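Researcher: Go.
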Amino acid sequence: MTSPRRSRLVAAVCLAAAAALAAGCSKEEGTGAASSDTSQGAQVVQSPSADSSGSGCTLEAYGAGKIDLKDAVVGFSQSEKEANPFRIAETQSIKDEAAKLGVKKLLTTNAQSQLSKQISDIKDMLAQGAQLLIVAPLNSDGLEPALQAAAAKHVPVITVDRKLNATACKDYVAFLGSDFVEQGKRAADAMIQATGGKGKVAILLGASGNNVTTDRTKGFVDQLKAKAPGLEIVAQQTGEFARDKGQQVMEQLIQSKPDITAVYAENDEMGLGAVTALKGAGKKPGKDVKIISIDGTRNAVQALADGQYNGVIESNPRFGPLAFATAQKFFGGESIPENVIISDRAYDASNAKDSLSGAY
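Model: Structure:
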């Protein structure tokens, strides 16, 4: 049975997301700039029965004090350099929602893919008086010194887009993000459809050390084993979630595994790098080699619309409305689920062109 508190939380999040629909901004193609929200881009939380696990966290249980965000200092710790449209859209969404709500002061930092810097960034924001931290973790492990510093000051931590291997309602309040195993399964289903269930697949893995890579790999591999044994995984190599690295890896694979007929990239940037590599080798991406990736960036959806791609599973980065709605309920005494899971759409050849306005 759905609790009244949880129903109110989900309703509030939906209202916040709906309000954000009007705040869309466009992305200029090919520049790496991205919109934080569009007419189709707001996050949607799954139904209460599916969006949570654990007993939930309250202000009292966490040991934090009640604050009004309009009188508060909020810190946002970004993990990776903003050359990736996902990171651009995520940071902008946080900034936009903070401005919309009238947050007294928003501190923003970028760890530039360095764990030690993310730890020092978080400690620095705490020293500047941050009363709430929204953290996009670089890795699932290693942030313990920063979490301990926040706990010592009774500052709540909400994590977005990557999970921590830590204790909910002790080290952090809640995780907000996608079901990454499910994303991998859906990518496998799209691959099966694109290939007819037969061929040789290369996986461009994301960065090591975080649950996104682990879960997206597991979901994809397990689904292929269960549904398409005729699709053989012949290579798994990390592209570190970067376009240039994805291109380099794909160039190497074209030489070492010339019979590859499909590529699963664990984010769009690596997938787009693979497109460039395949073109450079005289192959036709989307035809000679099928490509499926995860994220939902506008460039990837455009490639899909142009026939150079075969499927994209969304991973929505627009966390601003959800993060602040969750924080408001937490500070208002609501119990927050350990995992607040969002729904992600899928793009294919039938909807790519008409869905570009919802990509980032």
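Model: The radius of gyration is 20 Å.
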